[in-house]
Amino acid sequence: NGADAVYLGGEMFGARAYAGNFNKEELLEAIDYVHLYGKKLFLTVNTLMKEEELPLLPGFLKPFYEQGLDAVIVQDLGAVSVIRKHFPKLEIHASTQMTITGVHGARIAKKMGAKRVVPARELSLEEIQEIKDDTGLDMECFVHGALCYCYSGQCFMSSMLGGRSGNRGRCAGTCRLPFYLDGTKNTKNAYPLSLKDLCTIEHLPEILDHGVDSLKIEGRMKGSRYVGEVTRIYRKYVDLYLSEKPYKVESEDLKILMEVFNRGGFTGGYYKEYHGKDMMSMKRPDHQGLYVGKISKLMKGKISFTAQEDIHKGDALQIRINSEEKVELTSPSEFKAGSKVVLNGQKMKKLHEGMEIKRTLNHPMIERIDEGLKQKKKENLKGKIIIQKDQCAKLILKDGEDHVEVIGPVIEEAQKNGAMPADIEKLLKKTGQTHYTFEELEVDLGENLFVPGSVLKKLRKEAFAQMDQTKILKYRRTYEDPVKENDVASSQEQEDSKIQIAVSMENLEYLDIVTEDREVMKIYLSWMELKQQEDPQSILNKIKTAGKQCYLMLPQIARKRQMEELKAKKDLIFTNEIDGLLVRNLEEFSWLIEEGYQKEMIADYMFYGYNKEAVKEYQRLSGIQIRMTYPSELNKKEMEQLDLLNADLFLYGYQPLMVSAQCVKNNLRGCDKTPSWLTLKDRYNANFFVHTSCCDCINEIYNGKPLWVGNEAGILNDLHPSVIRFHITRENEVQVKEILNAAKSIQKGERASLATEYTTGHLKREVL
């Protein structure tokens, strides 16, 4: 249907673990299959890899690399390092899971060896153009399909709620579930985290004019009908754009896209708007079909309406009573648009005039698509057949740079009538079920020659087989074991024999209580909070006067707006009163390296180091000592395998499960530009706290229970962190004091309990 390349997943490391992925033999066959048509195959290895998994990566990739795999798409920096070392000729694509949001993140991806970047879906056209202009990297952007509520690579909701991590390819689709604002049972907008699917078919010229090289269609959890039809339509309009003819999308094509799948219409995504209610599908998250009319009359057991579209025999129609209940009907006949339709109804007492009727299955469209799926794609060849007396017959084929020559038997003079050029051309062009057809065929035929049809068929068969091999074998590679390097021992050292207490604070309400506590040695301040203070220097001075070390927690998402602000206030960030920075994304990390930052950098838990190789990559890229934070999605045994000697251990705190450009408050109540906390409840009545961070126009959705692992016996001896961290967000004064007392007990090697209900996260359970 016109795709230039296909991303697919194998049996390991792919970000769609529940898709019908390819086994080894199928994947090897698929690599050859796409190469027969001059297309490319990209393998998804875009998950975070645990220490025990990463050594399996070279063995997993080796057969595909040798077969001719074109590229891999990657999230984990440790995986990037391993691939670069073992497969230096293999193209690397930086996954959208890397959360690359600007030029600095893209620069460091390029430094790591990436040839292509798939940036965050939330970026504007201007931000994408800037990355392209700055780095020259291939830019690949999503143009159609499902959108996540959270920035990709930053979602913990599925992981923390059900043990299925989006970072590990096992997202449970939690944002497609119902949630309600506390105190209301708002069934009208019961799905406040569900976005409409992306459709940019009408905006393709603008997207392509802003530095985008590759258009990505999301389809790995969809069926072949969806994938094929969406691809066909986008191919049609890319070709129209390239033809320089007037660009206009036909209404019928828009209807087809609606009918194959939509969630209450489409959104053009974030390319031209920052966020908004019109991007959401809050009534329900599933396929909603195409509007074909509304009930005009209810009769005994029957409904009638005026058809707004042609309705066909076998079409599936649907009337939604509410988000959970529906009436499904099948059209028994053909009805033209504008005509009156009468159908046998169901659940008549729950129906009323004016209810919308949607078509969820267009029967002839499905038949057409299914028939198209049976068709084999044909490659156009240029051919020349040379047949001369007393010489071997020769068939020459060309397809671009691919060229083959096949020699047949010696041709003799005919006893009676010799072969005619038209007959030879007609026979050779009967390519049947093969995947080739002749675009051109030149017949160089001598006079009065006997040319058996069997000879021509055999020549054609052998030539096609050789062309197959020519196309496939040119991609083959030989794997060479990398030169073994002496594994340089980590330069990490235990800072002190006594574990230090760090308190990180999202607000400054209880700063005095924290600074007055003698045992708290490190205080982490939120940059978003500090930058809004009238006199931030006085706050830093207070902390230093109390004899504490002061660190800044940089934004979890740093786009152009945030980076411009950081650069404008660089003097504050680099001031002597700040001892180090908590880094949370590649954008900040890369910028600090470029600026020659030499103080301490702490990689927060969402700046992932799941394996030793990832930790080494951070050290290599920065050239300075990076203090890691133990990843919150690893259990205790997996944390131990990292052998970190100088690390933060997050012991307490409400953790953001999602960070989003969307805003729950704006979408449900309207924007009042006032930072606030809201409470969402799920279908089990569990709480989730939503923080509207208006100064950065960011929404954070926190777990309703804080993480607490302070009562786990032996955790400090087993993990030997240099710093234990306690995170303050929405606690009251009593709770803050209780947390500080618990911190001191843990520091002494004692167990401590909290009065509040909590979760131990993944400490004792393995994340899938």
Helical run tally: 23
Helicity, as a percent range:
25-40%
**Averaging pLDDT over every residue, what do you get?**
94
The geometry reads as: globular
Assembly category: single chain
**Helix-and-strand structural type:** alpha/beta
Radius of gyration: 31 Å
Task: Summarize the biggest pleated sheet.
Answer: 9 strands, mixed
Number of DSSP E strands:
36
Distance between the termini: 35 Å
Strand portion = 15-25%
Low-confidence parts, pLDDT < 50 over ≥5 residues?
Answer: none
What does this structure look like?
It is a single chain. The relative contact order is 0.10. The model has no long low-confidence stretch (mean pLDDT 94). By secondary structure, this protein is of the alpha/beta class. Strands 1, 2, 3, 4, 5, 6, 8, 9 and 10 form a nine-stranded mixed sheet that branches. An eight-stranded parallel barrel has the order 24-25-26-27-28-29-30-36, surrounded by four helices. Strands 7-32-33-34-31 form a five-stranded antiparallel sheet. Helix 8 (224-243) crosses helix 10 (363-374). The chain is globular.
